[in-house]
Hints:
Layout: H1 14-19, H2 22-25, E1 32-34, H3 39-49, E2 53-57, E3 63-68, H4 69-79, H5 105-115, E4 119-123, E5 129-134, H6 135-145, H7 149-161, E6 168-169, E7 172-173
Parallel strand pairs: 1-2
Antiparallel strand pairs: 2-3, 4-5, 6-7
Amino acid sequence: MLKNDPMGDSFLPAGIRSHTCVDEWMESQVPLCRLGDTLAQATRTMLLASEDMIVVVDRMQRVVGMLHDRDVAIATYVHGRTYDMIYINDAMRLLPTLLHPNQTVGHAEDLMHTYNLRALPVVDEFNRPVGLLTFERMITMALETSSHPVMLRRMIDALGRLGDGNCLDQGMVRRRY
C-alpha cells in the first residue's frame, strides 16, 4: 500500500472504482455445473472451459456456490473415493456474497478483499448467473484503461498481496477464491 493513499488497499483509481459497472468488465461466459453432478462431470466442464473453477447452480439455475480444481483434489483425498463417486455438494464452496451487473468494480474489489476471494459470480435479480468477475480480469481491464505509474504500483502491490499468508505453499502461489 502506498503511504498516505486515500484509497487504502485499492489498486483502482477513484474514477474507475466509482463509475465503472461490473457488467462492463465481467466475463459473460460462465462455466456451470449443477448440484447433483459428480466431481468427474465438474472436472470435465472445467477442462473444456479451460478454467480452474466453475459456478454451481441449483435446478432453478440459481447460483449456490463455486467449485475449484483444488476442492476436487481435497474432496477425493478426504472422502477416499474417486471423483466419479463424489457429488459437487460434498466439495463446493458456499459464497458469502454475489455481484450484480449494476454494482461498481470498486464494490467488487472491496468484497474480494474482505472475503479473500479471487472471483465472484455476477447474477440477475433471480440469482441466475449472467457473468463472472475475476481479480485477474479486473487487473487486465485496469491496465488497459490506464498506464499511470501510481496505478501500476497499486496493481503490483495488489498482486503481491495474493501471495500473502495462507496462499503460499512450498514457494508456489495457490489460488484462493
